[in-house]
Specification:
The chain has a single domain (about 20-135), classed as PAS domain (Beta-Lactamase), CATH 3.30.450.20. It contains 4 helices and 5 strands, in the order ββαααβββα. It has about 140 residues and is α+β, with helices and mostly antiparallel strands. β4 and β5 form a beta hairpin.
Length: about 140
Amino acid sequence: MNKVTPIDEEFPFEEGTIISQTDEKGNITYANRAFCKISGYTVDELLNKPHNILRHPDMPKTIFEKMWSTLQSGQAWNGLIKNLRKDGRYYWVDTEILPIKDSNNTITGYIAVRRAASPKDIEENKETYRKMLETEK
């Protein structure tokens, strides 16, 4: 597991769209080049790993509980996420996740599209997430 330093440095990115796909359990089955570049992982390091390999400890668990509940009900989910890079730095993304369904309408996986989060959105969410984390402890 990655060690997070007490003072981690934000890793800004301005270009590209991060795309990943997972199976129904959240294990990565596809990662585009932009995803590898921003996360610091190679494709081989990401494939078949749970997507939460990128979960930053500053992210409240309730965000992911709501995300999974929404996705498993067949609906799309959108939110701001702080992800952890392989090197311990982090980055914020505005995320849209959609369920992938087969011909029987059974969810077989998920596809996520992410872009750099705006500074305004980051500032608005930091305090909310901090308060949520305090209530989880």
